[in-house]
Amino acid sequence: MDSAIRIRDLRKVYNSAPPAGAGRGDSSARKKRNKEPKPQIKALDGIDLDVAPGQIFGLLGPNGAGKSTTVGILTTRIRPTAGTAWVGGHDVWLDQTAAKRQFGVVAQRPNLDFSLTAREILLFHGAYFGLNSHHRNERAKALLDRFKLTDRADQLVRGFSGGMMQRVSIARAMMHDPQVLFLDEPSVGLDPQTRLLLWEIIREYNREGRTILLTTHNMEEADALCQHLAIIDHGHIIASGTPRELKSSIPGGFLLRLRFGHTSAPLLERLATLAGVTEVRASGDSGADLYACRGGSLIPEIVTTAAALGVELSDVHISEPSLETLFLHHTGRSLRE
Amino acid sequence: MNGKAFLALLARDARVARRNLVPLLFQTFLQPLLFVFVFGRVMVGSGYMPEAYKSLLLPGIMAISMVFTGIWAVAMPLIGEFQFTHEIEDRLLAPIAISWVAVEKVVAGLIQALVAGLVVIPLAWIILRPGLELHLSSPILFICITLLVAGFSACGGLALGCSVDQQHIGLMFSMVLTPMIFFGCTYYPWSALSKFPIVQKLVLINPLAYASEGLRATLVPQFPHLSLPLILVALTAFDILLLVVGLRQFHKKAIS
Asked: What beta strand segments (E) does A61-113 contain?
């Protein structure tokens, strides 16, 4: 079956600061107002991606990883430096108008038409996509109802709260019933109740056979909602698969983050020989990350091993198999950092 | 081009204009009204200006009104929508090439500029009568000139709106629009600059000079004015130039 979204060797280098919402990219360089050559910021460094039709696909990564740039290119708003991307079989750069018919977009920052009411926003969006007047009105009514916006439908969105604006944005993206829905960090700033409503609506839309690509830096969201995930960092995809596959790919499954008075090579070597330990990595001067197939039951042995070398265990944190652990395993950094 | 989407974009702008009708009317008509009153009525009535000045002034006021409205109507929303509210994004994602989104803005601005220009005539007629002598010799030529003037105003608005940062709006008015108005042969005919030959040559880079002179040539041909072929060629050239520059700037803004 053809992919709903296909990306081949996609690269993006910004010659100036990337647009707001598209992260910082893989550089700390900043544009300065002088004659120095413009800093080049590599936001995407050769990405390949296939999203099957009818999938909820998550792009998980920290801020500045390249998630928004990927969505920006897929939605024709960012020009790729190299590589190609297709949505619904249409090249998003060469065949923009046809591609735009295939998708709806919820941007990371609010971009509602402040001069219009919530209902007008939906109606005009429908009109841009050629929906006839009857169809437009019916669909707008249904969406306003579904998103619990009916009682404010005829007010200007200018005065809406952040959560309400987000709901209008999502309703608008669904207005022309696109095959593919892009959601860039959809639940940032939403209260837990609205977040659950959003998840429910995403799942419902997906059940109608629609493809959804969402970006998030929230592991819980990725885990709960996505059927397939790609983990992105510094413009590279570092892992992809179902959440279950990804979690089971972590060596051992459990991660024990240990702190000692100090660590030494002999200590790390001995820790690696403990039963059930699959990998040991030094973490700073006094820490070690230990991947193992068991968690708490290892502690007494770790304490004994350390004590034999005259080292005291000062802190320990046990993580069960999670996407956070996976991210840490691949990058050595926490997703939250 | 997707005609349905284009019309829907125009309908959106019409809805917004209707919603903001009262401020829009003030913004469009207050300034020409004051100009006509002070220069045409007060100055002439008190004898500081000859009676004929009324007729000489009218095309200039009309040109200012059109250019100001056209630029304002396109530039101001674009500056805000690109940099602050991002409101334009939904329209950029409509299934239509983004150049047409820019052209739609120009068409909407052109219509507003035409209305602003045409309303000045009855307005001036009410305030300045008697003594106003208009001789509309060729309606077709008049329509051509007003369309070209409205066109370069709206295209200029596109070019400015996609080039000026939000924090430089004030500068845009003091550095671009004010000199344009005062060196635009609006309050005086081009021939009045004959004692300042350098200035007289320099103002020819100002499209507003051709607008004022063009309207003068078609509405009050009894006064000296630039030759019509020159006016038509210059206005057409400014329309094309500003549209091309505007579209290029629009693309730069719309796509990173």
From this structure: 82-87, 90-91, 103-106
- Is B87 in CB contact (< 8 Å) with chain A? yes
Q: Do A128 and B96 touch (CB under 8 A)?
A: yes
Q: Does residue A133 belong to the interface with chain B, where contact is any CB pair within 8 Å?
A: no
Q: Which segments of chain A belong to CATH 3.30.70.1340?
A: 251-320
Q: Does domain A251-320 have CATH number 3.30.70.1340?
A: yes
Q: Which of A78, A98, A111 sits opposite B90 (nearest CB)?
A: A111
Give the residue from B158, B153, B166, B171 showing the smallest Cα distance to B238: B153
Q: Which of left, alpha, beta for A182 (phi over 0: left; psi -120 to 50: alpha)?
A: beta
| Chain A residues within an 8 Å CB radius of B98 | 96
Between chain A and chain B, how many beta carbons pairs sit less than 8 Å apart?
82
What pTM does this model have?
0.84
Q: Is A18 on the interface with B (CB under 8 A)?
A: yes
Residues A250 and A79 sit within 8 Å (Cβ to Cβ): no
Report d(CA B224, CA B201) in Å as an integer: 16
- The CATH number assigned to the domain with range A5-246 reads 3.40.50.300
Q: By the CB < 8 Å criterion, does B1 face chain A?
A: no
**Using the beta-carbon criterion (under 8 Å), do B2 and A130 form an inter-chain contact?**
yes
- Reading chain A (337 residues) residue by residue, the pLDDT tens digits are 578 999 999 999 988 766 655 554 444 444 445 556 667 888 889 999 999 999 999 998 888 888 999 999 999 999 999 999 999 989 999 999 999 999 999 988 888 999 999 999 999 999 999 999 999 999 999 999 998 899 999 999 988 988 889 899 999 999 999 999 999 988 887 888 888 888 999 999 999 999 999 998 888 888 889 999 999 988 999 889 988 888 777 766 788 888 888 778 888 888 888 888 888 888 888 888 888 887 788 888 888 888 888 888 888 888 877 777 777 777 766 665 5
**Pairwise CB contact (< 8 Å): B16 & A116:** yes
